[in-house]
Design a protein that fits this description.
Layout: H1 2-11, E1 43-46, E2 50-52, E3 70-78, E4 84-89, H2 97-107, E5 111-112, E6 115-122, E7 128-136, E8 138-149, E9 152-159
Antiparallel strand pairs: 1-6, 2-5, 3-4, 3-8, 6-7, 8-9
Protein name: TonB C-terminal domain-containing protein
Organism: Rhodanobacter glycinis
Length: about 160
């Protein structure tokens, strides 16, 4: 009976379905920074760091065409809660709308450490202490890239 069970296992072959998702990565675009806030004397800012950033999925409707590399820039508007409130994708000539949709879908799920600005002051003894902390919205530009290599889709993201 053991032989029959082993023979049954040996004859079954599992073939993984082809992947329809691209690989992803992201990086900051050089030369641009997030919206600046004027910091008063004794003020310190922190946060605005990505926590959760799922990669965009290569649009399945474009897999067969496998076009040359697509680059889309988008501005992510992040609220005081660290959630992306808006994704503003630049319109690129000749780019299928499915790529912009993929960018909006992925970036809309991203989460950041909220941007905080804390004001510090010294007491009569010269000891510093935090007087107040406020959370501020901010924006960051990113570049998303979609490409096919050896018939396999790939996506990547660059932060500005």
């Amino acid at each position: 009976m053991l032989v029959a069970l082993l023979a049954g296992c040996a004859s079954q072959r599992v073939v993984a379905p082809p992947s329809h998702e691209g690989e992803s990565s992201y990086r900051a675009l050089p030369g641009t920074d997030m919206t600046h806030y004027q910091l008063a004397l004794g003020a310190v800012s922190g946060g605005a760091v990505p926590l959760d950033h799922p990669a965009p999925i290569y649009p399945s409707t474009q897999l067969a065409a496998c076009p040359p590399e697509i680059r889309l820039r988008a501005l992510l508007i992040v609220g005081t809660d660290g959630k992306v409130d808006d994704v503003r994708v630049d319109k690129a000539a000749g780019v299928a709308p499915a790529f912009a949709t993929a960018v909006r879908a992925a970036a809309g799920q991203w989460r950041f450490v909220p941007l905080s600005i804390s004001r510090w002051a010294a007491d009569a003894n010269g000891h510093s202490h935090r007087v107040e902390t406020v959370l501020k919205p901010f924006s960051l530009p990113y570049e998303f890239r979609f490409s096919c290599h050896d018939g396999k889709p790939q996506t990547s993201t660059s932060a500005s």
